[in-house]
Write a structure and sequence with these properties.
Elements lengths: L6 E7 L6 H20 L6 E4 L6 H13 L3 E8 L9 H6 L4 E5 L13 H6 L2 H14 L5 E4 L5 H20 L3 E5 L13 H8 L2 E5 L1 H9 L3 H14 L1 E2 L10 H20 L4 E3 L14 H8 L3 E3 L4 H13 L7 E10 L6 E5 L14 E4 L11 E4 L5 E10 L4 E10 L13 E6 L3 H10 L5 E5 L4 H11 L2 E5 L5 H16 L8
This protein binds manganese (II) ion.
The site of manganese (II) ion (MN) has 5 residues, from loops.
Length: about 500
Amino acid sequence: MELSSSEVWFAAGSQQLYGEAALGQVERNCREIVAGLNAGGRLPVRVVLKPVLTTADAILQVCREANADRRCLGLAAWMHTFSPGKMWIAGLAALDKPLAHLHTQFNRDLPWDAIDMDFMNLHQAAHGDREFGYICTRMRKARKVIVGHWQEEEVQRELAVWQRAAAGLHELRSLRVARLGDNMRQVAVTEGDKVEAQIRLGVEVNGYGVHELVREMEAVSDADVERLTAEYDALYAMAPALRSGGPRRESLRDAARTELGLRAFLRNGSFRAFTDCFESLEGLRQLPGIAVQRLMADGYGFGPEGDWKTAALVRALKVMAAGLPGGNSFMEDYTYHLEPGCEKVLGAHMLEVCPTLTAERPSCEIHPLGIGGKDDPVRLVFAAAAGPAVNVAMLDLGDRFRLLVNEVDVLESKHAMPKLPVARALWTPRPDFKTAAAAWIYAGGPHHTAFSQALTSEHLLDFAEMAGIECLPIGSQTRIEDFKNQLRWNQAYYSGFAAAGGA
Ligand code: MN
């Protein structure tokens, strides 16, 4: 998982009016800006310079090429000079990749003593970008407007965030999610319209019988199982019962076989995300625990109980966060500490939390699982590292998808919780427990989330904007009455204007 093979194209707009000399200067300035952005070390994705655009045909062509190029995540546009908006109509109508509008200027400072009409002629972004903004707004074109001098750290940071969001959308557009078994029976929020998800986001979700995984597991050689259990021994603090010669060693072998079978199944089907369900385990001895945890650590998206929306989100977050410090995982709001003023959420699941969330050495343990009626599953147990994080969820409201993002602060637990047999994260949500929980519940937010220590709500807001889906952040500024109004206004917006084809 890396973003270094991807590109963002830099498209500078101008027109023929200024003559060859001026356009040559525009081109040289653009070259310097692109080189500077790439050398700044803040952008995860390389910026590639395209020829200065001076005609409608050239604009349409570069937009079509951006659509067709697998490496291109999106277009960063800037009007060095004035570029009449009508020239952009055909190109913007065709462009189906994310758009960033970099509202910058080659010179940072006005050349107070030297400024003349030639300078004025060349450095026109202040009004050229307004013309471009008009045509984007008139065409309801989703984009991120980034304002400031291109060498400014904050400008490059905003562009980097947008690049990561674009990488997440790009990933969804070619993502295949395998559902092993179906949804947990009777559960509502993990259901959803898979056809709509593919139309909106590109993600392809299909179901498979668990026997197809079992067939892969049966094809795994005993030697490979032994190699993997030896790897477990080396990597994790192994519970005595699971060690070589221990009474539960066979369960560890079974878990290793499950991991190898899952890897083969996912590889053969080109899946980068998957779900399982504890109610559909025919042919498996135990609910996959360590296997799912380690696959997530290798970049796979995962959702339990058939939760394909969360599986796709976890994968998208992992791609968006590539190379950043901090982990990304499936997560669930599990249980509470409700001491007034010190409320905390204990996030966990039956088994499946990704070990990228911790810097500590996980312990590999085996414990009973009260549901599913299978053998005791093997799992990795650890505590998520302290620090800021986000919980992200997508729900299907029937007429649209809604993305919810809650900023949280993961805490160092003062309590060891020695009998808790699963990996966990302890956090306080922002702005405070009561506001965050009420807002989440008013918004219809699910119990399953994709959890990231690497990303911020800004990444998800950019992502939702370019994907054309609703996004509601819950963070330090959230007030419940304002939030309820947002829900009301969004309901009107999405069932009115947007439903009629607007943006
Ligand atoms: Mn669950």
